[in-house]
Amino acid sequence: MKKVKTSGNLKARVVTIREVMDRQIPAPTSANISHGHLVYGMRDVNHIEWEPWEQDVDAYLRVLGKRRLDRANRYYNAMNDVQKLLREVSRRSEELQVAYEEMQSINEEMQSTNEELQATTDELERSNAYRQTLTDSMTDILLTTDQSGVITDVNKATELISGYQKDELTGQPLHQFFVEQDRAQAGIEQLRTEGMLSNYDLTVVTKAGREVPVSFNATALRDPDGLITGLLGSARDVTEIKKAQEALQVAYEEMQSTNEEMQSTNEELQATTDELERSSAYRQTLMDSMLDVLMTTDTEGILTEINRATERISGYPADELLGKPFSMFFTESDRAQAGIEQVIQEGTVSDYELTVVTKDGQQVPVSYNATVLRDPEGRITGLLGSARDVSEQKRAEQELQKLVDELKESQAKVVQASKLVQAGKMAAMGTMTAGVAHELNNPLMGILNFIQYCLKHTSDDDKRYTVLQDADREAKRCAEIVQNLLTFSHMEKEGEETYHKESCAAILDRVLKLLSYRIERKKVTVTQHTAKGTPDIWMRVNNIQQVLFNLINNALDAVKESEKKEIHVDMHREGKFVLVTIADSGCGIPPENLRKIFDPFFTTKPVGQATGLGLSICHSLIEAHGGEITCESEPGAETKFKFLLPIGKAKEEKKQND
Amino acid sequence: MTKRILVIDDEEAIRKSFILALEDTAYQVDTAESGENGIEMAQKNNYDLFFLDLKMPGLNGVATLRGLRKIDKDVPVYIVTAFFKEYLDELKSAEGEGINFEVLKKPIGIDQIILVTTGILEGPTVY
Questions:
Q1: What CA–CA distance (Å, rounded) separates A154 from A160?
Q2: Which of A495, A530, A557 is the last residue of a domain?
Q3: How many domains is chain A built from?
Q4: What confidence score (pLDDT) does residue A256 get?
Q5: Between A446, A479, A492, which is nearest B16 by CB?
Q6: Residue A38 and residue A27: Cα distance in Å, rounded?
Q7: Closest partner residue to B83 among A453, A456, A495, by Cβ?
Q8: HEC readout, A66-124
Q9: Residues A340-363: what's their mean pLDDT?
């Protein structure tokens, strides 16, 4: 930004629009806007040494200010001359030719003055457009009036600060909204005569009667002929910055007197320059008073402007930031660069999270909002970004996450605990059942033999014969129950068969044959599907046969009363397991029972028809195989029992290794 | 000569079951209510078949089996059990030592008792 471009004989000064704004450097006579920079033509002042910059500006301002004053004086003088001439023309037609010639030259001068004025006005408008993007985030008042000071337009901030709606403001004389109405009127007058008003302090009376001190900057809007058509004013609520306001007040007064004296002396121009610098400092104060990071970059993501918060948060002083790629100050520079590209493509980003690496190596999470800056032709010239330190927010989020994790952990523990409770319950049940079953076995064998002895010695036409037959059958049923109890309690497994490789489909066929009488009698449709590639399993064949028998027998009971009597058995491989699903279209299991169905002695069947051990036995046998059995049910619609069996003989090998 | 059977079981119901079941056969059925008693009787008499309980107070079934085998290595011994886990390991190690025995699973009824007994003492019978 501090370079001098040389193009032929024309030296040009490149400054940022911001500098024009802050320092209130007069607009260039002809201007180029490029990437947020203004290029000043130096045709008229190229005799001035331009380096170093600060001195350049002063010298430049001195000369340019004087030129403008001279030009303005020339303009007013010329106007007076024209009037004099017109009077002369009316009285003295013989001097018309002379007057016409003078007018010609004056017109030429006027033309060039007008062009300059137009350029100035255009620039001011461009400058204001840029100002708009910047000041929107700073909630500045922006308003326009006609040449007599009647409000023609206001921005949202004006409504917010004054408390009046836009339609209550437009059409009203501007000065009546201030405590100092006369001073406001005087300001408007000053604007009309001088074309410009800086840091003009007034006090707005809001609709609610509150007084808000504001600082006005204003310029005259002119038509192409150089006539004032209206005024453009911007004002800032300076309540919060009393100190700055007071400084500004002093500055204003100084500027007032300086302006009056400025007509003739360079000394006074110097004073104005000082004031302008103070004003720039004031603006910097405003920007720096923001707690959030505020920065601009060019389209490549090179930092062009920053505020103090940027320095504070990053730990880098401004001169180590400016001119550097934005992305190099973050842990994820790719993501930072992607953010810039996203802003350029989409025009804006919100809540874009990045992590700043500070100069001392700390990491600070920040959340960015950013928008593109455009020149009046709509070309993107750069980016304006604001960011907020979200460390606290992050910490809160992390704590929340920790709590969630802890909660999940305790949930898992609860699930684990309930599994242990279930396992413990089963183990206790098993032990008790085994004990009971064994105690019953001996007397049962006695009863069985005593009945059979009686039966053997009773004639079959004796009426006691059938009663003894009944007793024999019931005793055998007792023996069966005791057998089931022992199976359930595992107490028998050591004496049982060893593992063999067998296909579930083959076992299912045997079970369906065993149950074929029941299936046919109840008119139940049993379908089965074994997926291709379902492998044989290492298992205790009788155990798995019993599981399938119990489950299909239960399914037959379930569909007994249903209209639709269907049972479907599906088998397929799932990783290192085979999944067997037995689905029935029966009455279903109420949710409150679903948890208890694998508990021993839990049954919903009438007393005497079931021991409540069938599913407990299935559970025990599947677990003994290292598998898992579950049940899903939709009451009134469907019940699915699923069991997983490991394919490999891990269980068997483990046993052999023991 | 009448073949002799000894039933060793602490449960009277079991002893009686064997007596009743084999009442009409030509075999002589003796009973002992403990392992100690059973061994003592085995020393005094020649038995052709033993039915032995596994779970007994005092000398349990496996220990009794070892005692019986000291007297006679080859006489058939049928262990009548409901597979009580506690004694199965011991039984297995006895099997590992080359001690012969057969296992009958409780409960068994009259027909099975007769079938097993005649099967052992007379050879297979087709019913």
A1: 11
A2: A495
A3: 4
A4: 57
A5: A446
A6: 9
A7: A495
A8: HHHHHHHHHHHHHHHHHHHHHHHHHHCHHHHHHHHHHHHHHHHHHHHHHHHHHHHHHHH
A9: 87
Name the residue with tokens 């001073």: A183
pLDDT tens, A540-586?
A: 888 888 899 889 988 988 888 888 889 999 999 988 899 999 999 98
Cα-atom radius of gyration of chain B, to the nearest Å? 14
SS3 sequence of B5-43: EEEECCCHHHHHHHHHHCCCCCCEEEEECCHHHHHHHHH
Is the pLDDT reported for residue A22 higher than 60? no
CA distances from A125 to A21, A114, A200 (A): 12, 16, 19
- In this complex, the residue of B84, B89, B110 whose CB is nearest that of residue A449 is B110
Average pLDDT, stretch A492-498?
Answer: 53
Pairing of β A380-389 and β A293-298: antiparallel
Q: What percent of chain A has pLDDT over 90?
A: 9
Structure tokens at A478: 């007792």
CB pair distance less than 8 Å for A442 and B16: no
Is B95's Cβ below 8 Å from some Cβ in A? no
Give per-residue pLDDT as tens, B42-98. 999 999 999 999 888 888 888 999 999 999 888 999 988 876 666 677 777 888 788
Residue A486 Cα, gap to closest chain B Cα (Å): 9
Residue A375: its pLDDT value, please?
80
pLDDT of residue B18: 94
Strand A628-634: give its sheet, edge to edge.
A525-530, A566-574, A577-584, A638-646, A628-634
Inter-chain CB proximity B110 and A453 less than 8 Å: yes
As a whole number, the mean pLDDT across chain A is: 75
- Tokens 């009647």 found at: A150
The arithmetic mean of pLDDT across residues A631-647, rounded, is: 89
Q: Say if residue A588 is in the same domain as residue A658.
A: yes
Calpha distance B36→A498 (Å, rounded) = 35
ipTM of the complex: 0.85
Asked whether the beta carbons of residue A486 and residue B20 sit closer than 8 angstroms, the reply is: no
CB-count burial class (<10 Å; 0-12, 13-18, 19+) for A453: buried
Mean pLDDT for A609-625 is 80
User: What is the pLDDT, as a whole number, of residue B4?
Assistant: 94
Higher pLDDT, A46 or A312: A312
Of A120, A142, A163, the position where a domain reaches its end is A120
- Structural domain that includes position A383: 294-389
Residue A89 domain-assigned? yes
- Which CATH number belongs to the domain containing residue A567 in this structure? 3.30.565.10
Q: Give the DSSP H or E segment for A236.
A: strand A228-237
